[in-house]
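Researcher: We're teaching a course module on how sequence relates to structure. For the next exercise, students receive a sequence and then see the predicted structure as tokens, so they can try to spot secondary structure elements on their own. Here is the exercise chain.
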Amino acid sequence: MPTSLILFGILTSAAVFAGVFVPIWAVFRFPVASEPPIHRRIAQAVGMDHETVFENPLMAPLMGLFLSIASQMNWPALRERIRRDLSAAGNPVGYSVDQYIALCLAASAVACVKAVLFSLLTMGGTGLFFALPFFAVTGFYLPLHTLSNAAAGRVMRIGKQVPYTLDLIALVIAAGASFTEAIETLIRDNPNDDLNQELSIVLSEIQFGATRANALSSMAHRIPLETLRSVVGAINQADQLGTPLAAILKVQAGMIRMHRSVRAEKLAASAGLRILVPTMIILVAIVALVFVPFVLAYFATGSIF
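Model: And here is the predicted structure for the students to work with:
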């Protein structure tokens, strides 16, 4: 056998071995952490511990690869957006920013694999390089869009619940309970409510040693809701001035309801102006439908009959 063929066979075998070994080594070189990271331990402390793909024995090596790549991605705007949306959405699983970026990378990789399979089955590989970037970007931003929608929906639900919760807290405080005891009562009665979940985090922070003002300010920072910020500011100011808290909460609940009524009246007043344009378009269409045949008949025959 010629020496060139032997050398070619050796190089081919080495290339095949490297092509199989390197991806496997790249995936499984990232060991599973022996203990949960700090954000997971906090989630366990507040009772929000859920197993994720990062703790799954089968998926952990592959997700460790994506997590290593995500930790090297220095996109401040993207990281701030994910951090804000995770906080607003409640983050029940306890994902960190790096972990959610890793999920986005995994979704992008899955979208690319689907694009390759779809292209090979339908077009025989034609146009793959044109479609692959589109699927990669779409797969990356789909989890971001889902997270933003979840955060917006949760903030809206919390905003609707604020005045009702303030009335309940004021009622319990007026009955002789403290602010902490009032929160505990609300959480015990309805632990699945979004606002009560945030109050549960506030209560946990207070039990961990934070002041009530700092714990409430942290909640206002997590939830981008102006009414919630004003309520927290009023509560903190009442603590400093010694104002009865129950009266302050009742006033804040009344102000929120009044603002909602004013906003509803503005929307109702603007609805008439918004409906005016489509009404005019429909009217013009009806007039054209009635008179255009007569005009066409006149130009065609000189008579409208």
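Model: If you want an answer key for the exercise: Residues 46 and 204 are 7 Å apart (CA to CA). The chain has two domains: 3-156, 160-259.
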